[in-house]
UniProtKB/TrEMBL annotation, chains A, B:
Annotated keywords: DNA-binding
One Pfam family matching this protein: TetR_N
GO molecular function: DNA-binding transcription factor activity; transcription cis-regulatory region binding
Classification lineage: Bacteria, Pseudomonadati, Pseudomonadota, Gammaproteobacteria, Oceanospirillales
Signal peptide: none
Every HTH tetR-type domain range: 4-64
DNA-binding region(s) in UniProt: 27-46
InterPro entries: DNA-bd_HTH_TetR-type_CS, Homeodomain-like_sf, HTH-type_TetR-like_transc_reg, HTH_TetR, PsrA_TetR_C, Tet_transcr_reg_TetR-rel_C_sf
SUPFAM superfamilies named in the record: Homeodomain-like, Tetracyclin repressor-like, C-terminal domain
Keyword DNA-binding tagged: yes
Protein name, UniProt field: TetR family transcriptional regulator
PROSITE patterns: HTH_TETR_1, HTH_TETR_2
Length: 224, 224
DNA sequence: AATTGTTTGAAACATACGTTTGAGACGGAA
DNA sequence: TTCCGTCTCAAACGTATGTTTCAAACAATT
């Protein structure tokens, strides 16, 4: 095999195993076994298991963020002087996500599940790495979201953001299984692109739900 | 110490450590260390680590499901011949959750995070245990949900259910981290009881979002 | 062909894990 | 007291983990 075919084979295997089993539950021996390379290759090429985890994220997150930023550029240009509305921001995000991983002939579910694990599993180094590397794109998305929902307080928007993220990551991460269950139950097939068509209105409606007044500490500013 | 003080001490320590670190990342030595008991006590009293995990869930899920069923009884009685509406179903669920763990002088965050981990971490035995033990209550909740959203097609309800589940499980499973981030960013502290107050309107609005007509295969029956 | 730097290979490393063992301590019943 | 079942304790078990080692194979340059 070519010089650094090994690197890609390790990344491919790790990507798949991490997604389906989590980080701690996936050993280097499983990865190297699946990849058909020597055990020591991981530490030789990546230095440590932690660095391998980060490399897996970097390989799909870097091109995704580039594509997303470009899509945001187009969106803001189209919307002219007005800031883009909520539903188009969401739709740009999700459609960029859906389009992306075809490059590598991989189900989108894998990347969504990885993204979910990054939040869920307590890997401090990963959170720090993602924060340091991709906070720019994330902040830009948050800014677009903020301009699209000026009526929300900062706190409310923060939580609703998390709800959106959860609904998206959770559903898409198991989209294959969910689609199969639905097929068995109702005889209806739902391609991934169509799940997004169900998802976006749900998210948009949730984001724009009327705020209920509850025991606030008097700190419910509705601005920056 | 009394006869089976040890059992409770182990459960207390395990509960807390599992919630903040996950299952695989928490060793029996951490648990017994924190509990101040001997390492072998876990295998003596519970048989295995898997059984301990299940025991931790059983200790809070069993009384919770009993309380929830009672609350559902009251709700259905109050609503008279009509089925209870969506928001009250959701609110009964969440408020029962919030009220419950005070009995044991414990932050609700721990139980929320445990519940999230049950979905997130790939512990096959746990999922099977919860399915076998608590599916009755879960099914009843699903039935209430169905009667509260008769306008939705079966397909649409299926997906929106997943979105709700995702938003809830995902957010609650990392509520501590998210609360901390929010504190660093905006200087606002959000007790877990209040997260639920943000969550319910979001979910209700999402469930009741207007359906958009998209490429349907002509099979959008709105019945059972 | 000789030499260099890079990559692989099998084996061992030290450590941590869940679990088991067997001896001893405790407390109530005879 | 003697007995017996319950429980605790320190120690060890076997296994699996991430990582390191060092010799061999390889590729490219001189």
């Amino acid at each position: 095999m070519a010089q650094s075919d090994t690197v890609d084979r390790i990344l491919d295997a790790a990507e798949e195993l991490f997604a389906e089993r989590g980080f701690s539950e996936t050993s280097l021996r499983m990865i190297t076994g699946k990849a058909g390379v020597n055990l020591a290759a991981v530490n030789y090429h990546f230095g440590s298991k932690k660095s391998l985890i980060q490399a897996v994220f970097a390989r799909f997150l870097t091109p995704f963020c580039i594509a997303l930023e470009a899509a945001f550029d187009r969106l803001e240009a189209e919307a002219a002087p007005e800031p883009p509305d909520l539903e188009s921001v969401l739709r740009v995000l999700t459609s960029t996500l859906v389009e992306m991983p075809r490059q590598h002939d991989r189900s989108i579910a894998i990347y969504m599940r990885l993204q979910g694990l990054a939040y869920t599993q307590s890997q401090g180094h990963l959170r720090r790495f993602l924060e340091a590397e991709y906070s720019h794109t994330f902040d830009r998305f948050m800014r677009l979201l903020k301009n699209a929902t000026p009526e929300l307080s900062a706190v409310e928007r923060y939580w609703r953001n998390q709800f959106m993220l959860g609904a998206t990551a959770f559903t898409l991460s198991s989209s294959d299984a969910l689609t199969e269950i639905l097929w068995n139950k109702l005889g209806v097939e739902t391609p991934n692109e169509e799940i997004v068509d169900h998802l976006v209105p749900f998210l948009a409606a949730g984001m724009q739900a009327h705020t209920v007044a509850h025991g606030n500490r008097g700190n419910s500013d509705s601005g920056a």
